[in-house]
Amino acid sequence: MNKIASVIGLLMLLGCQSEQKNTIEPFEQLTKSVDQYAENIVSRGNIKSMSVGMYKNGNTYHNYYGAIDSVSKNPPNNQTLFEIASISKVFTGSLMAKAIVDTKVSLDTDIREFLPRAYPNLAYEGTPVTIKNLVTHTLGFETPTKLKNVYSKIFSGEYAKNPIAYTIEDLFDELETTTLSHAPGTFYEYNNVGPEIAAYILEQVYKKPYPELLNEFLKEIGMKNTYLQDYNNHKDRLIYGYTESGALATIDENPLLGGASGIITTLPDLMKFMQFQLEAKQPFIKEATRTLFENEEESVGYFWDVGYAEEEGFYYLKSGTSNGVQSILLVCPDTNYGQILLMNTTSEEAVNDWINLYNKIEYDLIKYPKINLWSQVAPLFLKDPKEASKQYLELKKDTVQYFATANYLNKVGYDFLYQEQTALAIDVFKLAISTDPENANLYDSLGEAYYKAKQYKKAKESYENVLTLDPDNTNAEKNIKEINLVLEQSN
Fold it and tell me: How far apart (Å, rounded) are the C-alpha atoms in residues 91 and 410?
């Protein structure tokens, strides 16, 4: 699972109550920490609004931060609809997994059995494209040219006020001239064609339109505020999204059946889907999330990205990116937690902050019911690093209630560096070293912070400490040489 840095935020001052036992229930404290992280992230200004949901051991929480736009200054709410883009694919995958479990079809079924024409070209040296290839992005051929151009025009906003000149019939026409470049199932290439063909096959299997099949599934879960490509009837509730440049984004419409994208939903409804994944004992859930294709970089179920991590155990996730909305859904059955993040900004800076928040929340979910000690002292640290460090070291003794590691503090320090708060970064790195004085990496981090602060002598001293603990550290040797040059030039 990709993990980046941590997030610094605002929670509550410990003050004179720092030595008192925390009487707040662990999950309530966790929600306060999540609020702290999200509010801090949004305050950086890169993200207009953030919506967060989480699940842990049967407990759920969701909240909204920031403002949808700068004019109304209103935050999202339980009625706000979000484009979840490619997360739509896992609903298609769930329906296909149900069909597999119910023996309606087989993963090894040649897709041509359901297509409207013969398509002798949809095979590579006798190996046909199968349903398994559809749901794992291993078709063996690229997205047809016309459809690729349509997707590009949709993303650029060219179809914002005009009908999209492409249908499922146009896709069937293009498939007749498609050439497979390699055997299906041997090469992963993310695409929208597989999910759309999968949706079409589901229509043939159940003799129902795909929207009707999806609505039946949504009703089973209790998702009453989720719709497929029904933008006009719900435009007053659809969140404004903003592009990389900060411009108002157009709707990321899908010209085909909706198997690849097109679902709009609320955070409470998406929470129901996450909870369904963790609590329902439906056989198709296990089927939909088992590994069907794996290489060095990808591990895929029925459109889910799946994997295993040392602390989390088995997990699966899916992200979605529309013109103006970024979303992610994570489910960890082994450790019984999940999280959802939705934001209406897609700039690079916003995505970095979004990933930062994702990792911060997940770290706390993994360690629950222990509470992240840093979240308790972070607000005070911004005002009085010395007193906050003192309280941190005292509270760190309570290993039953809190979790605290030097490596986590190292991430906190780098988050301060990212925000150009170098003095605070130095204080955090020094605190980390006081808890783990034999950790060479911490001295390396402190050296980097001192160098950035132009405190070159202290930077050199830090890198010398790195070499004392790790004599073969070539990075420290290189940095010392650079610092020596700087010091010579300044004399």
Answer: 39
- Summarised one tens digit per residue, pLDDT across range 355-392 is 999 999 999 999 999 999 999 999 999 999 999 999 99
Helix, strand, coil percentages in the chain from 3-state DSSP, rounded to 5: 45, 15, 40
Greatest extent of the chain over all pairs of C-alpha atoms, in Å: 83
| Backbone angles phi and psi of 146, in degrees to 5 | -65, -40
Compute the half-sphere exposure of residue 441: CA atoms within 13 Å on the CB side of its CA.
8
- Is residue 184 a contact partner of residue 190, using CB atoms and an 8 Å limit? no
For a pLDDT cut of 90, what percent of the chain falls above it? 89
Q: Are 270 and 329 in contact (CB under 8 A)?
A: yes
Length of the chain: 491
Quote the pLDDT of residue 23.
Answer: 46
Q: Write the CA distances from 77 to 62, 265, 306, 330, integer angstroms.
A: 10, 12, 30, 21
The phi and psi torsions of 328 (rounded to 5 degrees) equal -155, 145
Helices 193-206, 168-175: inter-axial angle, 10-degree rounding: 110
User: Which helix H or strand E contains 127, and what residues bound it?
Assistant: strand 127-128
Whether 33 contacts 11, CB under 8 Å? yes
Q: Give the C-alpha separation, 59 to 476, whole Å.
A: 46
* pLDDT attached to residue 24: 57
pLDDT at 22 over 60: no
| Single-letter amino acid code for the residue at 439 | N
Cβ atoms of residues 102 and 158 within 8 Å: no
Query: Could you give the CA distance from residue 158 to residue 152 in angstroms, rounded to a whole number?
Result: 9
Cβ distance 272 to 295 under 8 Å? no
Say if CB 342 and CB 325 are below 8 A apart. yes
Nearest 5°: CA angle at 135, between 271 and 286? 55
The pLDDT, as a whole number, for residue 21 is 40
Strand partners, 228: 263
Report the amino acid identity of residue 247: A
